[in-house]
Design a protein that fits this description.
single chain; 17 helices; 32 strands
């Protein structure tokens, strides 16, 4: 990817274009953000291990992380000591600067150790979803050229060793570190934790004890090669729109994105204790939780290996958490869990919402139950490291609830017509495009796919539909692929979902398009009711009548107990469309 200069972004404003230092106001949906916008910090040149070193020196005896389900807690000093031991052991197994190291498992201390140990060697961490199956595991490890796979022994009903053996049968008869597979030619080692020793693998506890003085020399040499612009992570997209692609992020991109995000959250002023039920394997967990908290020296609490509403409630009570990070679906599940009335959750002050805006009704409930003071929301993609826009303490409640905030410093954003590729007027919907330092380096080994989303002027085309107001606040309407065309009229589901959310019996709702021979598509609302509530399709239609345009009232209403979800808490609309595509035949 072409690297953009950061030295010419001093102009700032909405609807302004500047090509030669001159500032000209326009009515187009374009803005660029400088340090003066909500944050005065400059871009910094630090690597991820630099960040851990500095924070540990500043807060050696402060509690760094808690894994509630495993009863594991660490100070910054002890955490860094264990990270250093693991890094030394991984060097002993053959890991070097630039190698790809996969990490596969749910939220555990070992996952976090691996994240920072790999970074300190200058290797590239390849995040693998805890719920992935053998075919997905093979695709990711082969595509990334993973040399060493660090893995849990099991998760829920899945035996990880058995799944690894499916794609690498020779593991059962190999010595540890001597894997040879024609299907995975780059794979040499598997390091496992959390179970008994199995053939062909290293045990993590052993690896943490096997480093020598010679390995220390190698480790220091690897660290000496490490630069801010080196790749730090490869995070594979969810694959909901095709084969998963490996998003490559660098130390510079991630550290700076989290630095500015933390400043806008006032993490430099507020000593938050954060409850984090999001998966570490997702960019939300890797950067917005893990790296952000290490960067600012704040305590993070992981309630359970994967999201459980009850465990989250208990962790808030036990650790007196003041902030929670998650998707709206997680907050809704927590607020509706029976344990909320049995535990004290009034320590909560703030929530940070990713994935999609939180319904106003959910916030009102959170205020009643928790005494919550504020909600902050952010927008971005793995491809933007990830935060592109966010709301702050200074925004009005209307802006915090109805928008995903303003652009992060040193970035540019425009809203374009996907057909003509021209910038649309302020207030008009179009595709959100982002440009600047935090945009990914590219998709690993897929230059053609990279060029499909990053154009010749370095604009990342997100595939999201949004609109920008005159102050630069972004509203997300939906995904281009989620847009419904009914009788030739473009309909974005978010507007309808936000209204149906206000029905007193509705906990969650997803609006999808269903094929229709006459209209092209018809609207279907897939509704999840609050516990103990009961209503009918006709009642919901009557609730909509006269309050939203008639053509936006869903023709079909279907009720579900649960939605198909990604590991990061996003609802998979494509699976809902597949499930209900023949609804008119029912």
């Amino acid at each position: 990817m072409g690297k953009r200069s950061q030295g010419n972004l001093e102009e700032t404003g909405v609807g302004y274009k500047s090509s030669s230092g001159r500032r000209t106001e326009t009515s187009l949906s374009y803005c660029r953000a400088s340090p003066a916008d909500n944050c005065a910090a400059k871009l910094i040149r630090k690597t991820i291990p630099d960040v851990l070193d500095e924070t540990t020196e500043k807060y050696p005896d402060k509690e760094c992380v808690v894994f509630s389900a495993d009863n594991e807690r660490r100070t910054f000093r002890r955490f860094k000591e264990e990270v250093d031991r693991l890094a030394l052991g991984l060097v002993r197994t053959g890991v070097r600067h630039g190698d790809r190291v996969g990490i596969w498992g749910p939220n555990t201390l070992e996952w976090l150790h691996t994240q920072y140990a790999v970074a300190s060697i200058g290797a590239i961490l390849v995040n693998i979803n805890a719920a992935c199956r053998p075919a997905e595991l093979h695709h990711i490890t082969a595509k990334a050229g993973v040399k060493t796979l660090v893995s849990a022994s099991s998760f829920l009903t899945q035996d990880y060793y058995e799944m690894i053996a499916e794609i690498c049968p020779s593991i059962t008869s190999s010595l540890a570190g001597k894997l040879q597979s024609p299907h995975l030619p780059d794979m040499e080692s598997v390091v496992m934790y959390g179970g008994e020793k199995r053939p062909g693998v290293y045990v993590m506890d052993d690896v943490m004890s096997m480093g020598t003085d010679e390995d220390m020399k190698v480790l220091k040499a690897c660290r000496g090669k490490l630069g801010c612009d080196d790749a730090s992570n490869m995070i594979f997209t969810s694959g909901t729109t095709g084969t998963p692609k490996g998003v490559v992020l660098t130390h510079f991109k991630s550290v700076n994105n989290m630095h500015h995000t933390g400043l806008r959250m006032s993490f430099d002023k507020i000593d938050h204790v954060s409850c984090a039920p999001v998966p570490l394997a997702h960019i939300f967990g890797t950067n917005i939780v893990s790296l952000l908290h290490i960067l600012f020296g704040r305590k993070m609490v992981f309630p359970s290996p994967s999201f459980q509403a009850g465990s989250t409630v208990k962790a808030i009570n036990d650790e007196r958490c003041t902030m929670m990070f998650g998707a709206p679906t997680m907050f809704i599940a927590v607020l509706n869990h029976e344990w909320v009335s049995q535990y004290d959750v009034t320590s909560m002050r703030s929530i940070f919402v990713g994935a999609s805006p939180i319904p106003p009704e959910t916030l009102e409930e959170a205020r009643k139950v928790m005494g919550l003071e504020e909600v902050m929301s952010g927008y971005g993609l793995t491809e933007t490291s990830p935060v592109a826009t966010m709301t702050t303490h200074n925004d009005t409640e209307e802006k915090r609830l109805c928008t995903v905030g303003k652009l992060s410093p040193y970035l540019e954003m425009k809203i374009i017509d996907p057909e003509t590729q021209t910038t649309v007027p302020l207030g008009s919907p179009g595709e959100v495009c982002v440009r600047g330092y935090s945009v990914m380096a590219g998709y690993w080994g897929q230059d053609a796919k990279t060029r499909e989303v990053i154009d010749d002027e370095d604009w990342l085309h997100t595939g999201d539909v949004g609109s920008m107001d005159s102050e630069g606040y972004l509203r997300i309407v939906g995904r281009i692929k989620d847009m419904i065309i009914r009788g030739g009229v473009n309909i974005y589901p978010t507007e309808i979902e936000n209204f149906i959310y206000t029905h007193p019996a509705v906990q969650e709702v997803q609006v999808i398009g269903i094929p229709d021979s006459y209209m092209g598509e018809e609207l279907c609302a897939v509704v999840k009711l609050k516990p103990g509530e009961d209503t009918t399709a006709e009642d919901i239609k009557a609730f909509c009548k006269g309050k939203i345009s008639h053509y936006k009232i869903p023709r079909y209403i279907r009720f579900v107990q649960e939605y198909p979800m990604t590991g990061s808490g996003k609802i998979q609309k494509f699976k809902l469309r597949e499930q209900w595509k023949n609804i008119d035949e029912e």
